Amino acid sequence: MEVHDRIIQEATTQFFKYGIRNVTMDDIAASLGISKRTVYETFKDKGALVETCMRTLTAHQDKKTALVISESENVIEAIFVFMREAIKAMKVVNPVFFKDFEKLYPALWKKMEKDSIEKKYTLSAKLLNKGIEEGLFRKDLNVEIVSKLFHEQIGLLVDESIFPRDKYDFTEVFQNIIINFTRGISTQKGSEFISRILD
Fold it and tell me: Residue 156, Cβ neighbours under 10 Å: how many?
């Protein structure tokens, strides 16, 4: 693996674990056993490194999403794979990371958040239409409205006035949203498939 890729991999791991503010270029260099000069020769500053890490991660996630959809038996199986992957990510990413990202790099945060929302709605519409075609989701669904409802529910996860962290397990709330929402839009065939997955 090239130095450039090793730096991105190590920096992403540390940012997720400790937050962005708490990780220095020195920390990354020391972890990799390289000089700080090498890190700065590869990335002009920490901001450039953060941006490259996030864009690399996004590109990786896009490829993974496409692979999951193509390899899944149907749309419901794909949704449950996405759910399990998201739960894994929640367990390794420190919430401080998101707070740091938004506060320290607001322009990049807003740009990536805008791109992410557009991708999520496009993906939701694709999955809903695919599920309708497969006879797993009800034909009477308004895809645009259902997409918005779903993402608004997911947005509730970060609202601590509704789900305070000291009272609710983040992953349990997320799992309940996904499973119950999917059941609610499913046909009998879809509901039976969900039951088989959960058994």
Answer: 13
Residue 137 has φ and ψ, to the nearest 5°, of -115, 150
Q: What is the pLDDT of residues 123-134, one digit of tens each?
A: 999 999 999 999
Question: Measuring CA to CA, which residue among 77, 78, 104 is closest to residue 19?
Answer: 104
Which tens digit of pLDDT belongs to each residue from 104-120? 999 999 999 999 999 99
pLDDT above 70 as % of the chain: 100
Segments in 72-169 forming alpha helices (H): 75-92, 95-104, 106-133, 143-155
The token duo for 63 is 């490829």
CA 86, chain centre distance (Å): 6
Tokens 């193509």: give the residue.
Answer: 70
Which residues lie across from 137 on neighbouring strands?
Answer: 186
Per-residue pLDDT, 159:
82
Rounded Cα distance, 104 and 126, in Å = 34
Q: What pLDDT sits at residue 102?
A: 95
Identify the CA nearest to 20 among candidates 61, 28, 136: 28
Nearest to 55 by CA among 120, 109, 102: 109
Residue with tokens 């590109």: 59
